[in-house]
Design brief:
Blueprint lengths: L17 E6 L6 H13 L2 E7 L10 H11 L6 E6 L3 H7 L4 E6 L2 H18 L2 E6 L9 H9 L10 H10 L3
Parallel strand pairs: 1-2, 1-4, 2-3, 4-5
The structure holds adenosine-5'-diphosphate.
Adenosine-5'-diphosphate binds next to α1, β4 and α5.
């Protein structure tokens, strides 16, 4: 993982020391990690939180996703990895988290994300900060990666090396 260079300006230090990057991460992609790395530059502390969702599981178990995220983020001192179920805002309250960070890939992400952000702000007064996807990741999603890999496509440029290897094992290659 490239080193985190922390922002020493306005954002550092004050209002949002601890943020969460929530998601399914099934599996984590370079798009996810780009958002986590940039959040780690902006905020004091980042928790990457894997949503435990019994309706949306596989191919990776939650424990496998946590392990993959831990390895991928191991170079970043202010990033920790955890899982949660239930409402994200309850998890935030239990853990002293000040804000939610989400990546925005395209306009198509926006409507749903705005709705969720407004709901979370209304429920608990917890705001959401959007970080724009890097252009090279704006087409990238876990589901697309899985689909392409299932049909034998090479997805190694889109994933951390250990995720590529784990996905190949899952697909029996
Ligand atoms: P997905 O299955 O669509 O990849 P996740 O629930 O795992 O979605 O995503 C968690 C968070 O990561 C969301 O805020 C999502 O917008 C963001 N994200 C996912 N892929 C990317 C990407 N390629 N670039 C930037 N942000 C991303």
């Amino acid at each position: 993982a490239p080193p985190v260079r922390r922002c020493r300006g306005l954002l550092r230090s004050r209002t949002m020391p601890h943020v969460v990057c929530p998601g399914s991460f099934d599996p984590p992609t370079l798009g996810h990690l780009d958002i986590v790395r940039r959040a780690a530059q902006l905020f004091d502390r980042v928790t990457v939180a894997v949503l435990i969702n019994p309706d949306k599981s596989g191919p990776f178990t939650v424990d496998e996703r946590l392990d993959l995220l831990r390895v991928a983020g191991s170079g970043w001192a202010n990033v920790t990895v955890d899982s949660f179920d239930g409402l994200l805002v309850d998890y935030c309250r239990r853990n002293g988290i000040d804000a939610i960070v989400k990546g925005l890939r395209a306009v198509s992400d926006f409507e749903y994300e705005l709705q969720m952000a407004q709901m979370n702000a209304g429920l608990a007064g917890i705001d959401t900060v959007f970080i724009p996807a890097s252009p090279e990741h704006s087409f990238l999603s876990s589901s697309l990666v899985k689909q392409v890999a299932r049909y034998g496509g090479d997805v190694s440029a889109l994933l951390p090396a250990q995720v590529t290897a784990a996905l190949a094992r899952k697909l029996g290659r």
